[in-house]
Amino acid sequence: MGYKDFDRGKKKKGNLKNLLRIIAFFCIITLIYWVSNLYLKIESIEITGNHNIKAEIIEEKLSYLKEKNLLTIRPRLIEKSLINSLPLEEARISVKFPNTVLVKIKERNIAAALPFNSDFLLLDVMGNVIKIDSDIKNYSVPIITGITVKQAEIGRIPTFQEEQRVFSSTFEVLKGILPIQNQIVEIHAEKADEGTNFFIYTVDGIRICFNQNRLKQNNLKNLPNILEDIRKNSRGRGEIDLNQDIPVFRPY
Q: 44-107 sits in which CATH class?
């Protein structure tokens, strides 16, 4: 009997030690959680890489992070959210202890400018608004004319007075002429009975015209070579008609 009682006593002591270890473990976890919540609350967001998008706009998108525990944020989800809601090519999220979230972004390139009231909308190649500015002297991008903007918001495609398809067609054309973007000063779009008519003006006074539905796609692809040939042979100003099977240049 004495040995049995002794064994039972040892088991009780062992169980008590295990219980105390478990309690101590949970106490430590609770203490760590409490301390981290107390000392690792997000207090500031540092943003780098932004040139056209104001830091305040990015901070507003991330305002839900304030007061959260720095250890609980999920960088990949935050990066994806920023790219989906702002005209960004890249976003990288990291942390700086004890209270700071670091945001490094790469903005999309400005592809065109579109008049809006007394300002200009600076757009990426997808048509999203990157910036609204009253002066575009520092931007070597074509101006889109012939389209009236109804409403605009940074990070979104504008809404228009006319049919949205004219704008969509314009940006399909813009993608096609990106190799000569710096040679273009204006892209004028006009709604036609069928498709959209385009009149594109170069820095040296050449007008390129075509209808979206009648355009020969190879002609648009070959436009850089066509312009180079015209300049190389000093043919001066004139109009290039891309609706024909073979592009036609008509000197002024």
A: alpha beta
CATH topology of domain 112-251: Rossmann fold (3.40.50)
- Phi then psi for residue 111, to 5 deg, are -105, -25
Residue range 165-191, pLDDT digits in tens: 899 999 999 999 999 999 999 999 998
The answer to whether residues 107 and 51 touch, using CB atoms and an 8 Å cutoff, is yes
Q: What are phi and psi of 230, to 5 degrees?
A: -60, -45
Which amino acid is it at 74? R
- Give residue 245's identity as a one-letter amino acid code: D
Provide the residue ranges of all domains of the chain, joining segments of one domain with +. Answer: 1-39, 44-107, 112-251
193-244: per-residue pLDDT in tens? 888 999 999 999 999 999 999 888 789 999 999 999 999 998 889 999 999 9
Q: What is the CA radius of gyration of the chain?
A: 31
Nearest to 51 by CA among 92, 116, 109: 109
| pTM of this structure | 0.70
Task: Read off the pLDDT band of 72 (50, 70, 90).
Answer: confident
Q: How many CB atoms lie within 10 A of CB 221?
A: 12
Q: What proportions of the chain, in percent to the nearest 5, are helix, strand and coil?
A: 40, 30, 30
Helix or strand run (H / E) with residue 168: helix 164-176
**Two structure tokens written together for 136:** 């575009």
Place of tokens 């997000």: 42
